[in-house]
Amino acid sequence: MATRARNISGKLAEVERRVAALENQSPRAAPPPRGQWWLLDRLAGHTGEGWERDGVAGAIAFGGRVRTPGSGDVMWQVEQPAHAALDGNIEAATTVLAALGHPVRLTLLRALLRGATSLADLMELPDMGTTGQLTHHLRELRAAGLVVSARRNHYAVAPDRVVPVLITIAAALGSISLTDNDEGKEDS
């Protein structure tokens, strides 16, 4: 029995040593992007089988790392063949785009991202209409998977939808490139 206890104690000490070594390692940082068009350069490598279908070739990528009062820290990214956007579920896309296509719903999403959480908070926003109208808009946002409700009359933007919502709004606004076009690549 004593021998077994020493073996277990020795194994435990070894595991503790290895865990401590792992905890003391500095995380490996991703290599920094190279050049102003690092994302486009990365996507240029996506060619051939899997990246082309029905004459549509290439890749798309989008993502973000944000912190908002209403969502906390969120990291999200997607990289996929361009044809996947055309082959996806059109009904699901229509539901999301329709939910985003109303000014009151965009106002609600903005308020939720800025920290509003309760129905009472949202009712204080200008031009929200009646409680019934507000709950209708929240129901549409929930049906589209953009908003979740942790408890009755308390709402938040779904964590996996924070960055996509911001990207969609930025794209609709015609986001402004922060880089010059001096390398001959277009912003569109």
The CATH superfamily name is: Winged helix-like DNA-binding domain superfamily/Winged helix DNA-binding domain
Order of helices and strands: HHEEEEHHHHHEEH
User: Over the alpha carbons, how many angstroms does the gyration radius reach?
Assistant: 24 Å
The description of the largest β-sheet is: 2 strands, antiparallel
CATH structural fold name? Arc Repressor Mutant, subunit A
Q: Helical residue percent?
A: 40-55%
| Beta content | 15-25%
Q: Strand sequence of the main sheet, in spatial order? A: 1-2
N- to C-terminal separation? 73 Å
Q: What is the tally of beta strands? A: 6
Mean pLDDT: 84
Oligomer: single chain
As for the number of domains, it is: 1
The CATH class name reads Mainly Alpha
Describe this structure in words.
The protein has 188 residues and is α+β, with helices and mostly antiparallel strands. It has a single domain (38-172), classed as Arc Repressor Mutant, subunit A. The protein has eight helices and six strands. It has helices at 2-24, 38-44, 82-87, 90-100, 103-113, 119-123, 131-143, 162-172, and strands spanning 52-53, 56-57, 59-68, 72-81, 147-151, 154-157. It has a two-stranded antiparallel ribbon. Strand 1 and strand 2 form a beta hairpin. Helix 4 (90-100) runs antiparallel to helix 7. The model is unreliable at 178-188 (pLDDT under 50).
